[in-house]
Amino acid sequence: MSETETKRGRRTGGRERRDPNAKPTGPAYIKRVIPTYDIMGEESLLKIEATADRILAEVGLDIRDDDEALALFKKSGAKVDGMRVRFEPGHLQEVLKTAPQEFTQHARNPARSVQIGGNSVVFSPAYGSPFVMDLDRGRRYGTLEDFQNFIKLAYNCPWLHHSGGTVCEPTDVPVNKRHLDMVYAHMRYSDKAYMGSITSEQRAEDSIEMSRLLFGADFVDRNCVILGNVNVNSPLLWDGTMTKSARAYARANQAAVIVPFILGGAMGPVTNAGAIAQAHAETLVGCAMTQLERPGAPVIYGNFLSSMSLRSGSPTFGTPEPAIGSMVVGQLARRLKLPLRCAGSFTTSKLPDGQAMQESVMSMLSAVHCGANFILHSAGFLDGLLSMSYEKFMMDADFCGALHSYLGGVVVDDNTLAMGAFQSVTPGGHYLGSDHTMANYTTAFFDSNIADNTPFEAWNEAGKTDAATRANKRWKASLAEYVAPPLDEAVDESIRDFVARKKASMTDQWY
Amino acid sequence: MSETETKRGRRTGGRERRDPNAKPTGPAYIKRVIPTYDIMGEESLLKIEATADRILAEVGLDIRDDDEALALFKKSGAKVDGMRVRFEPGHLQEVLKTAPQEFTQHARNPARSVQIGGNSVVFSPAYGSPFVMDLDRGRRYGTLEDFQNFIKLAYNCPWLHHSGGTVCEPTDVPVNKRHLDMVYAHMRYSDKAYMGSITSEQRAEDSIEMSRLLFGADFVDRNCVILGNVNVNSPLLWDGTMTKSARAYARANQAAVIVPFILGGAMGPVTNAGAIAQAHAETLVGCAMTQLERPGAPVIYGNFLSSMSLRSGSPTFGTPEPAIGSMVVGQLARRLKLPLRCAGSFTTSKLPDGQAMQESVMSMLSAVHCGANFILHSAGFLDGLLSMSYEKFMMDADFCGALHSYLGGVVVDDNTLAMGAFQSVTPGGHYLGSDHTMANYTTAFFDSNIADNTPFEAWNEAGKTDAATRANKRWKASLAEYVAPPLDEAVDESIRDFVARKKASMTDQWY
Hints:
The structure is a homodimer. The first copy, chain A, is built from 18 helices and 23 strands. By secondary structure, chain A is of the alpha/beta class. Chain A folds into two domains: 6-33 and 96-405, TIM Barrel (Alpha-Beta Barrel), CATH 3.20.20.480; 415-444, no CATH class. Chain A has an eight-stranded mixed beta sheet. A four-stranded mixed beta sheet of chain A has the order 5-6-4-14. A four-stranded mixed beta sheet of chain A has the order 11-10-23-22. In chain A, helix 5 packs parallel to helix 6 and helix 12 crosses helix 17. The longest helix of chain A is centred in the middle third of the chain and has 22 residues, at 272-293.
């Protein structure tokens, strides 16, 4: 992480050959100035931690199909009984002391490297939808072209700091080859940091190997350049596919993101406190496993809470209970001194409408308030995580822009206090033309490119558009003006050669 | 405010003759369990307070056309020079020590009386739009029928605690008679607490006099039953119409809400810290004036911050800078130990679309996070405060429902920690049918009546509705099922007689 770290044998000094003023022009990530929103007192936090400890000691957790993970835990002193693992209170917290509190994920353009932990905030696109949507064509299965499009849109967007991972499933590519095309697309069409595959240990290793070709093997061994987002098979079950992928990332000194997946009332208790305790227990196990695999490897404490409809049992998103529960999860992660991942803009709406944005803003604000450092799903989701919407992507991304201002808080200094302006403008007068306004107006307020703030009459004459219609124009314009960031030709060729050889060695699998 | 206070000569014991289980069924108000979100440290708060003090001492504030207010301030020790008033630092804070930290606003149905101050939160409809909108008829001037409709919708809504004030302008009624029809409509069509007129001293006094007929003069002299929302003519100018109305409320021991109206860059500095300092100065003067008029009268510290478009100079709402600025205003109000009013769901969108809900949720969450006790404009606004939308009203009201759960925080006890459930469900098992889920599921999650959480296919077959279309059905259904709360016939007649006599004494004014 040092500024003088060598990269592919050359000294980069932390700065890049590329023009740092090239598009996109946003900051590499946000330094949150406002404090986190800590809603729970010490006594209740201790009760939740004690419940997690009791779950781990009395019930334990199953690890299925990963004998090496079981052996690692046994060696560390856990009680292993078949695939069931139980832990003495405090054991995992002790193991986790080697995990870094904060780390840099390097991008191939160093100006876009992101800091993960502390008070940094990184916005990353939504992840994992099989479907895509737009206003023109409705819902359909995602393709590699859609995948590349979302990478291009994220690259162009000044408010998204990260290229993401499976921004949508490219369902026109065989399942066993998708990871190669996906990781390559992140490398080729963006210069922001990205995520790799976790759907098998081999695919995780391929993703990391491709990163070695891009960044150099030595650099990758000493620095984080790729994240892998691994889910617990909640409740209290870790599937071997996931533990092996998580260990592959840790082994390579890359960051696994450890995420329980609890729909309250289905994969965990319907009550928030219990769901949080369970999530904490599951995350502790996953994070500790990375440290047993390679002490000091970066790892991210992940949060995913959800609710369900009382009438249908359907999962619901962007609802108040997960939003407030996330604040507590944030407190628990900070007490462990681990970087935190939260989910951003969740909704069950099937359109980029009022419901979509109501739920998404509720969910996204809870993520930033709870102190999340890496916010996955910051832009694009509709349809209960099943669809990636082009319009919603632009609307969410615009809201990410608004959050840049919001997280900067209220600056208090002689200029912002404006005493001189009060002395020069008479009571009842006007500040529009005042020197203070002229000196500050361009930086004072976030300028949305989706919101329509014009008077009713102007809006009416201009075609009565809604936000979704304006967003439809925005994504088309953004794709039309996309210019790929330069990529060293030899490096590009070496990665493409790797992909071609890998693909040639495989038989297509479609499920 | 005592439980045994007599009301219209009868002992009510704080409970009502009406069936407390009658519709609506929501709580009278919210007791916020989560803490406020305090984003600013002591040093910066002191700087803002010091700037407000300097504004008041060095620049001062004009009070136009109200010699009595000037005399009150002069008598209290302020420096009065023509209509300019200047205050020594600390002077107004000292005057404000007689203001109650918390008070009850009584509703005619005591089960719906609201507490204002402390950790109570009261949601009240939007206020002041000349236009109304719905999906069927578009935008048009509001009428008395619209006004009555919004009162009925607020009455039926379990999540709105208050009937509001000028829920829309009934433009088919002469300007000088509107207040009579508006206050009567609140009394007749709802039994929730309400607001009165402030557009002239006489109209304020008429509103209070009608309340005396409803509650009894003795009761009104000793208890708050009506609020008047008075605006500063920012920057640093109090118009006599407003100060006289505010004093009329205070004189009758009723609560004035003192609200600066600062569009940053127009009526105050474009920088948040300066706008907040100015607002604080203006509010201090207005609140202190009520205490000079009648020490101990209830008064509410009001907050209204806004931003503007850099491109057009148009006001913008629901943007990040006012949202984060409101947190600081909340801290300042609490340091003065005054109840706080904030604005709720603001937006410049002309449709109940994604922009509308994105901006509204941002704004509404800032109001609840900053600790506002009385949240005006909780439901209905579109079009930059100019239009009251029937659909948006239902969507916002539904979000108010979500906030009931959110403000309750995360309950930590043996039941919610669910240790028994963990011991009975095997790892990898399912909680849907578990005893713990069955015992808790009906109260676990807020159940929206606008959101569509069904799978895509079901939504597609059911007509692909958006949230606004569903809200359109909801308001029509709510009006169709409306039943007026009972009102004592003699009381009703006395109020109608007052209105008729007042109207007969006036010549219609239309502007």
